[in-house]
Amino acid sequence: MKPIRFISTLVLCWIALGIPASALEINGAWATSPSSCSQVFMKKDGAISFRQDSDQYGGGFILDGDRIRGQMQTCTINRRKEDGNVIHMIAKCADDIMTSNVQFSAKIIDGNTIARIFPGMPEFTLSYSRCAM
C-alpha cells in the first residue's frame, strides 16, 4: 500500500509543478529586445497585455496556447508541427479590417530566445527574447 501512495504522491507533484508537455515551450510574452519588455508589456489582474505606446519600443507578441496576440492583430493557431528545435505553425489572423492565413516558424535558440524564420528566406530571421512577467 505504501508504494502506491508514494507513486501517486509523486505523480501529483509532477502535475502540480507543471512538467511541460512539450520540450519546445514558447508560451509567454516575447519582445525584440529584453531591455524593452517593461515598455512593451504590462500585467494587470494577472493578464499580460500590450502597453498603449508599445509600438514605440519595438515589436513583440504574446503566445498563449493556440493564440498569438500581436500589437495589431490576433491569431489562432490551426496547425503546429515540431521539427527538432523548430516549431512550424499555421494560424488564422485577424485585425480590424480582414482575416488571413499566416505561416510562422520559430527556431528555439535557448529557453529565453527564439528566432522567427521566414519561409523562402532562410538568411532573414527576427530574434525575440522571453519577457519575465
Descriptive report:
This protein has 133 residues and is an alpha+beta fold. It has one domain (26-131): Lipocalin. Helix content is 15%, strand content 51%. It contains two helices and ten strands, in the order αβαβββββββββ. The strands form two sheets. It has an eight-stranded antiparallel barrel. A two-stranded antiparallel ribbon has the order 2-3. The longest helix has 16 residues, at 2-17. The radius of gyration is 18 Å and the shape is globular. 16% of the residues are buried.
Shape assignment = globular
* The CATH C-level class name: Mainly Beta
The overall average pLDDT, rounded, is 82
Count of individual helical segments: 2
What's the CATH architecture?
Beta Barrel
Structural class: alpha+beta
The low-pLDDT segments are: 1-23
- N-to-C terminal Cα separation, in Å? 43 Å
Fraction of residues in β-strands: over 45%
Number of domains: 1
Keywords: Signal
Signal peptide: 1-23
Protein name: DUF3617 family protein
What key phrases describe this protein's structure?
single chain; about 130 residues; alpha+beta; eight-stranded antiparallel β-barrel; two-stranded antiparallel sheet; about 50% strand; disordered N terminus
